[in-house]
Amino acid sequence: MVDNVPWESLRHNFGSAEDIPALLLASAADPGAFGELHNKIHHQGGGVLSAAPPVLPVLLRWARDPGFALRAEAIGFIGDLARTAREASPEHVTAAWPAAWQDALPHLLALLADPDPVVRRAVASPLAQAADQASLVLPALLTRWHEEPDEAARLNHVLAAARLLRDTSGEWPVEVVDWLSSLHRNENRALRFAGALAARRCGLGGRDPRHVDEIASYLSTADLAVWHDVWPRGRRVVARLLWWTNDVLDDDRDGRTRLATTLLDSVDPDRRANAMNAAAAVMDRWRSPVTTLLPLVAKRLSDPDCRQRRSAASILASAGRASAPWTAQLLAACDDEPAVARPALQALVATGAPEAVGLVAELLDAPDQGLSHNVGCDGPSLAALLTSLRPAAVQLLPGVRRRLTSSNTLAEQRTLLLALAKWGPDAQDALVDITSFLGTQAEDWALDALIALDSEKAREAALPAVMAAEDVPTSVRTAVRRWKVTGEPEELLLRLEEDTHTLRQHAEVLAQLGPAAAGLADRLREQTALRRGWELVKLHYALWRMTADPEDGLSAATAARSALLVDGVHGRQTIRTIGKLVPLGALAEPAVPALRPLLATDVRPSRGIPDDDLLCETVREVLAAAGSVSPCHRSPSSTPPN
Question: In terms of Cα–Cα distance, which of 4, 77, 81 is closest to 47?
Answer without folding.
Answer: 81
